[in-house]
Amino acid sequence: MKxxxxxxxxxxxxxxxxxSYAQTTNILYSETVQQRxxxxxxxxxxxxxxxxESLWNLEKQxxxxxxxxxxxxxxxxxxxxxxxxxxxxxxKDKIDITEQTVFQAASMSKFVNAVxxxxxxxxxxxxxxxxxxxxxxxWQLNYDEKQPITLRQLLSHTAGLSTHGFGGYIDSxxxxxxxxxxxxxxxxxxxxxxxxxxxxxxxxxxxxxTMISQLILMDxxxxxxxSFVSENVFxxxxxxxxxxxxxxxxYSDNLSYGHSQNGKPLKNNYNIYPESAxxxxxxxxxxxxxxxxxxxxxxxxxxxxxxSNQSSKELITPALENSNSALGLxxxxxxxxxxxxxxxxxxGFRGKFYFSxxxxxxxxxxxxxxxxxxxxxxxxxxxxxxxWAGFKMFEASSTLAIDDVDLSKYVGTYALEDREVNVTxxxxxxxxxxxxxxxxxxxxxxxxxxxxDIVKPQATIEFVSDSNxxxxxxxxxxxxxTEWTKID
Length: 488
Known about the structure:
- The protein has 13 helices and 21 strands.
- By secondary structure, it is an alpha+beta fold.
């Protein structure tokens, strides 16, 4: 039985400021679409819905979490069926969020970067499995030459490189060059990008690796990164509200400001990210949805406006077996249906997109604050209203009554091959963890089966007892079943 890796997606819960509601402007939708919008706005739910529990209203959830503003674009049948803004920007020049309001995409920038690199591959003499030092002319990476690092590995976080992410800069007075970022030299505020484990061994998220791929694009195209992406991705798709953090002449007046946990706009309104490929994109859910649809159409037919069918298939294919890390995307198996997703987290901004590889459905959500809980609630709502194929809605047993006595028998260590996970209990809350790697609460579906709250792809775990009632193993279901033996 193959071992499936658990990839951790951390849920951050935070408080943001004052709420107000702003409808999308100057768009008329059919009565059917208007009803679906209303249904989405009133169908938010937790990961596990208690039997008989009512679904939630979007406006009330924004109030509950003190979310200042967010924007949504919904894809249905390969079209943007609707887009809408909610709440306030924090920007006095443009107070209300509309579908044209621009947000920081944060790590969702990596999806655009991967598409741009695949476009470069189609037009230049490069291959995904080339040694990256043969593609770089302005800088070289020192690494173990026994195992060359490749472009495919950079885009899928399997190159074994350091530098998880970037903090951005308060102002534009002293911004580092790309080489200074890679070398960790001042004024860069991030560490040097270096090899910390063998390439092609396992997933190791590295924004630093993404920045090397940006330099490859610049070296091979003999152009600025921003110009190449604009000419080869943004312009063909009319992504007219998309630009990069250091392209100050392109800043829109319809800009959403980042918010801190106390609900106030950041004192500097937003950080600046010279790390364009990894975190520097400004865009709207509508613009990202245009790119997603083009990839979906490319997967369906011979090609889209940007990539060929073959390139799009490579884009969504994980680099390692039993991994869900593709090129600038993460795959998720929803009961046999393939979906793609990526989230983003910059200072004062959060976002996520989620779309089908096999039909024309999807959603893009961007928030001007540090709350991600509401993003997951909205995704579940859209999946519910549009009846997305394969999506499973978890509902707890109507007779569920469980306490510390019931839960305590599951506490212990469970092993599979050379891996161990631990189940602990505190205040009627079970937690599943792998030492030094990740930790997740478990939410009960019934007395023996639980949802693993914050891992992707979605997982459930069932505890199995012998005839004497002693727990002997657990079965993890994460697109495939694995049995973990209780050893302590």
